Amino acid sequence: MSASAFYPIGIPGQPWGEAEKQQWRARQRKLRSYEEEVVAGIEALRGDFDVHVYGELDYAPDHYALYAVRSRAWNEGLPTALVTGGVHGYETSGVQGALQFLREAAREYAGRANLLVVPCVSPWGYERIHRWNPNAIDPNRSFRADSPAGESAALWSLVSPIRQRVRLHIDLHETTDTDESEFRPALAARDGKPFEPDGIPDGFYLVGDSENPQLDFQRAVVAAVAGVTHIAPADARGLIIGSPVVAPGVIEYPVKRLGLCAGITDAVYTTTTEVYPDSANATPAECNAAQVAAIRASLDYALAQG
C-alpha cells in the first residue's frame, strides 16, 4: 500500500527533500495559543515553585520560550523526579495533565522529592496540534547530545547536570486517532516508505524500557490509572501498536536506542504514558486526571523504594 494513497505530499517511494518539507510546513496553521493555554498556567505557579526559562526556539516568525518548573526547596539529599509533557505538541493531556499535577498535587511531595516538571517541550507543535517540529522532525526520536531538533536539544541540556541523579522520569503522551489518519501516513511519505495501517488501542497504556523493564513499577502505575480511566486491552495478536504486551497495559521499547524522551536520564524508574483522548468512554478531564494519577503513582512507588 503506497504512501500516495494516504498523503498528498511527495512522490511515493522517495524521501522528502526541502521542497516537500516547505510544502508540508505551508499547510500548518496555528490552532491554539501556547501563551494563553500553557505559559499563563505556568506563570500562575510562581508563588509556590521556581519557574525559569531553560531555552528558546526561533521559528520565524514565531519565537517560543521554554519553561521548567522546579521545587522551591531543592535539596540535593532528596531523590529527584522529572516529569515531561508535550514532547509531541498535539498530545494535549500530556501538557494539561502536567499543569494539573503542579496545581493540585505537587505540593504534597515537598520535602520528599525534588520535582523538575517541563509541561510543554514542543510549543510550536502544541499550537498547531502536530507531532513534528517545523523542520518535519519528530522530537521524540531525537533525544541525544547532537540532536537536530531544537526542542530535544534544549531539554537534553537542561537535564544533563542531573542526569545521573534522577530516580524517576515519567513522560506524558497520548495515542490519538490522528496517529493513524495523519501522522503515520506523513511519516511514511516523508521517509519514502509504504504506509502500513494499524489499529489505535482504546484506553490507557504504558511504554516501559525494554533494557530496564521494572514491571512491578509499571503495574503499580497501571493499577492506579485503572481507577480513573480504562486500560487498553491487547489486540487479537496479543499486541498494542505492534508491540507485545508484557503486562496488562504495558509494552516496551529500547528507549535510549530510539532517542525517546524517556531515555534522557539514567533513572531507575522510567515510563511513558499513553492516553486515548478519542475514546467514546473518556473525556478531556478524564484524560488529564489519568495523567495526574500516573504521575502520583510513579512518584509514590519510586519514593517507597528508598
From TrEMBL:
One of its GO terms (molecular function) is hydrolase activity, acting on ester bonds. GO terms for biological process: proteolysis. Keywords: Hydrolase, Metal-binding, Zinc. Its cofactor is Zn(2+). It comes from the Bacteria. InterPro entries: AstE_AspA_cat, Peptidase_M14. PROSITE patterns: PEPTIDASE_M14. Transmembrane segments: none annotated. Residues 30-306 form the Peptidase M14 domain. Gene3D superfamilies: Zn peptidases (3.40.630.10). Belongs to the peptidase M14 family. This is Peptidase. It comes from Stenotrophomonas panacihumi.
